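User: My instructor asked us to take a sequence, write out its structure as tokens, and then describe one feature of it. I'm not sure where to start. Here is the sequence I was given:
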Amino acid sequence: MRRIRRALMVVMLVGCLPAATAAAQSFPLGLLPTADDGEPLDVYVWTMDSIFEIGEAMEIHLAVSRAAFVFLFDLQPDGVVRLLYPNAYSPSNYIQSSITLPDGAYQLLAQPPAGIEELLAFAITQPLPLVPGTTTDPFPIFASSPDQAIDQLVSMISAMSTTASWAVGWTGLQITGSPSTVPDAVQTIEVPELPAVPPFTGTPGDVWHVAAGGGWLPGIPASGWYWYYGLDARWHLCWVWS
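Assistant: Let's start with the prediction itself. The structure tokens for your sequence are:
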């Protein structure tokens, strides 16, 4: 399974980039002012794999172009948004350059429900009044939906007495329902032709694919290409195989 996964990793990493032909829309946080101090702030988040089985441990990498407070949010397949970092085991979130999570005596395990999961990194030059979780609830729920999460961040930034520099970064990954029984061997997989971009606007977390006979269907297909609508208000092309 590992060899198959890594053989298709190029497809996953390229396929889940924003669609070049998708309609460009402003990310909601772009409506907020940001300090122009001559030093642009960038934040990056990534994993070394794009597919994780339930129960599988993962590492999440964060990097910033200059020192900043970094908050990592997890948009689950069911729409719930959790605060992954800072947490009870990693309470200090002021990053000078980069960090790999977990960085303490804990693990990050892929949890149900299965589906597409999105990690949103938010970096800002001033601290936000976000309290890390406790040891009994290390990754607390931040919001019940992506829209509510954005509203809360907007409210916090708007309440600041001085304008701060901020940046966002994101990555997507897929949580599968159970370990695969496919033998650990390289297989040849025929990749079908790239589908057209959905001719409609979605909401964060929406997943659509083209049916065998034509027409659009919600959800992830058993195998093939599908489109995922991200928090950046753009369609992202992804691939799944059975």
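For the description part of your assignment, you could build on this observation: The helical segments are 2-7, 9-15, 146-158. Try explaining in your own words what that tells you about the chain.
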